[in-house]
Amino acid sequence: xxxxxxxxxxxxxxxxxxxxxxxxxxxxxxxxxxxxxxxxxxxxxxxxxxxxxxxxxxxxxxxxxxxxxxxxxxxxxxxxxxxxxxxxxxxxxxxxxxxxxxxxxxxxxxxxxxxxxxxxxxxxxxxxxxxxxxxxxxxxxxxxxxxxxxxxxxxxxxxxxxxxxxxxxxxxxxxxxxxxxxxxxxxxxxxxxxxxxxxxxxxxxxxxxxxxxxxxxxxxxxxxxxxxxxxxxxxxxxxxxxxxxxxxxxxxxxxxxxxxxxxxxxxxxxxxxxxxxxxxxxxxxxxxxxxxxxxxxxxxxxxxxxxxxxxxxxxxxxxxxxxxxx
Length: 326
Known about the structure:
Blueprint (H helix, E strand, L loop, with lengths): L1 H11 L26 H12 L4 H16 L10 H13 L3 H18 L8 H14 L8 H20 L8 H14 L2 H24 L3 H7 L4 H13 L4 H25 L8 H12 L7 H17 L6 H7 L1
Helix pairs in contact: 2-3, 2-4, 3-4, 4-5, 4-6, 5-6, 6-7, 6-8, 7-8, 8-9, 8-11, 9-10, 9-11, 11-12, 11-13, 12-13, 13-14, 13-15
């Protein structure tokens, strides 16, 4: 249908463009006004090709639709973000991070050149899928590549917020979690732990910033720092081994997260804040890694305090990590 509209348009405008002209059957001869194919038609076509399960061939056809839209009437028309997001997601489905990143950069460049707030790539529809795909494909990419790219995209979104002061452009909690996963897979243990902590702090800052803007519902829906984000810091801490000082630092961080989330759970009765069993298991394992204990009585009290918390919250106690701690 779009090709028919294009053929009609180019024929009546007496503008024969080889790349865009398609033979038009005489039985569809049209004598009415000249019509340019609407943007929505191209968006629908891109979305259809992207969802058609045609593999890379379908994605290439979607890119051709964008190309034809850009050449419409010899005008270099900028494709909409909706079109580019459809193609980007299709490339992500094919695990082609490079081509997906190309279309994400196109959206970023479109905003930078126009300065139009409406051209900012959608955080939830564009960046979150990209970062989650990046986390899934970390091992296929060069060292540090996924970790550095994910940090760059998080910082890009936060820079958009600094410009427009609209909480909707901030990274979502799922985007932050994906970025944390990228750090774990792509960096040395100590550096991954520090970056993961930094991302967790940024998520909490963005949540508070959104609440202060009077957007509580938006904050709870998109930026809530749930236990699923906190557990990424705990897991990063469990991988960070070596010096005694590092072990103590990781232990204090994990123990602090457990206490903070238990407090939030008691205050709100919200299951999103209830600490996960793996948090306790990792914390007990960190206790068991302490080689030089200056105050064993103090550490023993901390261990038993966690055991009481697990019993109070009706969390199953696993014997292995607890035995190591004891």
